[in-house]
Amino acid sequence: MSISTLPPAPQLNIVSSVDVAAILRDSTTVGHIGVMDNSPASKNKGTADLQTVCCQGQVLNWLVYSRDASKRPDGTWPASARIANILFLNEDGTVRNEKVFRELKVYGGPDAIRSQWTPVYYYWAGILRPDIEPGVYRYRLIIQCDTDVVGQPKAYQFDGPSLEVVLPTNPIITRMVRPGR
C-alpha cells in the first residue's frame, strides 16, 4: 500500500486534568496538571512530561478539564481553566518562530450550558504541517484560571509535554490506522 492510499491517522486528543484551586493557591502549575492522550505509542501518560506520538498532517485536539467542576452547594461554580495559548519551544526554552501546525486555534467549550450532565472543557485543535520534520517538539501551554474576581483570570505557564512527530509510514502509525498489522 502506498502512502497516498493509507487511510489518515486518527485524530488525537491530548487531555490536561487541571487542579485549578491548587494552582491558584500555590501560584504554580507544578504538580497540579496531568496530561493523557489516546495515542497508543505515547510515553509518560498521566504526567506533566507526556510525549504524544503523532504523524505529519495529523489533527490534534488539546482539551482542558478542571478537576473540580461540580456545582457548589451555594449554587456557584468553581473556578475553571482554559488554554490561552500553545507555544512551541526551542531547546533553550525560547519560543520557536517556525510554525509546527498549519492551523492551530481555540474552538471553545460548552460552558454556557453548564449543568451536572454537561462536561466543562475548552479545547484547541490544529493540523500538524504535512512537511514538518520528524522529531520531538516541546511545547508550553498558557493556562488561564478564573479567580474570585470576575473578569480577572490569571495566566500560568505549563512546560513539559512534547510531540514526537513521525512519518505516516512509521509502523507505530500504521498500527493505529490498521490495527492487527
Report the strand count: 9
**The biggest beta sheet, please?**
5 strands, mixed
- Using the alpha-carbon principal axes, give the shape: elongated
Order of SSEs: EHEEEEEEEEH
Assembly state of the chains shown? single chain
Task: Report, as a whole number of angstroms, the end-to-end distance.
Answer: 12 Å
Radius of gyration, in Å, reads 17 Å
Describe the structure.
With 181 residues, the chain is mainly β. The chain contains 2 helices and 9 strands; from the N terminus they run βαββββββββα. The chain has helices at residues 20-26, 171-177; strands spanning 12-18, 33-37, 51-55, 59-66, 81-88, 101-108, 121-128, 135-145, 154-166. The strands form 2 sheets. It has a 5-stranded mixed beta sheet, with no helix packed on it. The protein is elongated and about 55 Å long.
Helix and strand topology:
Elements: E1 12-18, H1 20-26, E2 33-37, E3 51-55, E4 59-66, E5 81-88, E6 101-108, E7 121-128, E8 135-145, E9 154-166, H2 171-177
Summed up, what is this model?
The protein is mainly beta and 181 residues long.
